[in-house]
Amino acid sequence: MFACVDADTLGGVQQVTHTLAQGLALRGHEVHLVGLNQTAEPFRYVQRPLYERHVLRRRPLGDGPGTTRRRAGRLLSAIGPEYAVLTCPATVSLLAGLLPPGSRSIGQYHGSYEHARGHGGLAAVARDYAALDQAVFPSPQDARRFAEEALLPNTAHLPSPLRAWPDTPSFLDVPRVLGVGRLVPVKRFDRLITAFARAGRTRGRWELHLIGEGPERDRLRAHAASLGVAGRVVFRGRVTVAEMGREYLNGAILGLTGEHEGFPLPVAEAASYGMPSVAFDVSAGVRALVLDGLTGALVPPADVDAFTAALSGLMADHARRRRLGAAARAHAAAYRAENVLDRWETLFAQVCR
């Protein structure tokens, strides 16, 4: 059983959860995916899900926490003993104490140690995750730091799985930089637009395509216009999972400019298509995906000048893009779904010992 706050909204945690649920169901496991809240505009990650889907709270404003807990208790009792994968502190807090006898509890934390420490999440993880059978983090360094700083005795690390593995990589010859993610302040796409505008002054054929939607769209459009690149920054909006492969095939570089990241799936997805990334070095998860100078470029957090220089260098050098991209694809093979699912099944066996 996997539990999310919002199981069907657009986001990295949700994509990972649906990928794992479908992959384990395909391997013959009975799988249930529980969302605490009903999503207003559901995003479809799997066309034909082989797992059961449940929603606890269909009217978020009308259901109090007591009602949600009662519904959760009835559902978990009906499902019976299970491996319960609780995907964030909120689901751990609500559901861990309601699991039927014989269940095994696994708490995930998809963010980075740096973000947890800076935004109050460290205390919640330290308080609630220690009593679980396993606490899972996105990178070895994150797991180690949570073990040391939050005094967790049960840490492990498992990367996020890729939804699919492309047969053919990108040729990286379309002059296009990609930014993938929700258009929200924390993703700092304004910095990506700024770096692209500066780098693009000598690279006039290049475009920046932003894939995603969100409340920052109008502000980002105005920012692009103020820098004189409105005609070369393309807002693509929401793109379905099935169509994302075409976007990566038609891109050359991925830019990652968020203030914090756990294990950013767009970097892994781009790498699977042989595409290098330029990223701010904001977490162990980013460092696990982008090996500086080998599979892409890492620059100091919020250093837009350094980001601009790294982006400009890759825009100017097709041979280097191909070289870094080939290494990125080889590195990303560890995140193929079958490899990550093998590790999950090993984890399930270990927590039963």
From TrEMBL:
It comes from the Bacteria. Residues 173-330 form the Glycosyl transferase family domain. Gene3D superfamilies: Glycogen Phosphorylase B (3.40.50.2000). The keyword Acetylation does not apply. Pfam families: Glyco_transf_4, Glycos_transf_1. InterPro entries: Glyco_trans_1 (IPR001296), Glyco_trans_4-like_N (IPR028098). Keywords: Glycosyltransferase, Transferase. Residues 11-149 form the Glycosyltransferase subfamily 4-like N-terminal domain. The keyword Manganese does not apply. GO terms for molecular function: glycosyltransferase activity. This is Glycosyl transferase. The lineage of its organism: Bacteria, Bacillati, Actinomycetota, Actinomycetes, Streptosporangiales.
